[in-house]
Write a structure and sequence with these properties.
about 20% strand, 5-stranded antiparallel beta sheet, about 40% helix
Length: about 160
């Protein structure tokens, strides 16, 4: 190879490296911008999802999950947002047992999936403590395998 050919090869190599680095910087800037956007968006979506699980959603999940709550409009108040709710019925549930105290029933979300469960705190079945997600499993209201299962109609018994 001649000196001229080596010069051209060196120039071409330098030009190629420069072009790759410029493209790399653009990709890096795009990646950094995307990462920053996700850092803001992901917590916002998570917060929004928790806000979607409000007192009314939990109240609606009771009759969707268990037939004993048919025709009921429970009133629920958050103990821990998105996790635990105290719910009250205006009248006793459908009488399936003599004493409701300790009775557990699943809850079902608007997409017809088991999202948690409730435990009766009194014999008449007017006061229930409801838990969502893993907390319902931890409280032994529903099994781990049942959480998230499709439930197209309220359960009986």
């Amino acid at each position: 190879m001649t000196t001229t050919e080596l010069d051209r090869l060196g120039d071409a190599l330098a030009h190629g490296i420069d072009r790759d680095l410029r493209g790399s910087r653009r990709r890096t800037r795009r990646f950094v911008a995307l990462a920053a956007m996700l850092a803001v968006a992901v917590p916002a979506v998570a917060y929004g999802a928790v806000r979607l699980i409000d007192n009314g959603s939990v109240a609606a999940s009771m009759p969707a999950g268990a037939a004993i709550f048919a025709g009921q409009t429970p009133t629920c108040v958050a103990v821990t947002d998105g996790v635990e709710y105290s719910c009250t019925l205006a009248r006793p549930p459908v009488q399936e047992v003599q004493d409701f105290k300790g009775t557990v029933e699943p809850t079902v979300d608007a997409t017809k999936h088991v999202n948690g469960g409730c435990r009766s705190l009194d014999s008449a079945g007017l006061h229930w403590e409801c838990y969502l997600g893993q907390k319902a499993v931890d409280e032994q209201i529903i099994g781990q395998d049942f959480l998230g299962e499709y439930a197209p109609a309220p359960g009986h018994g």
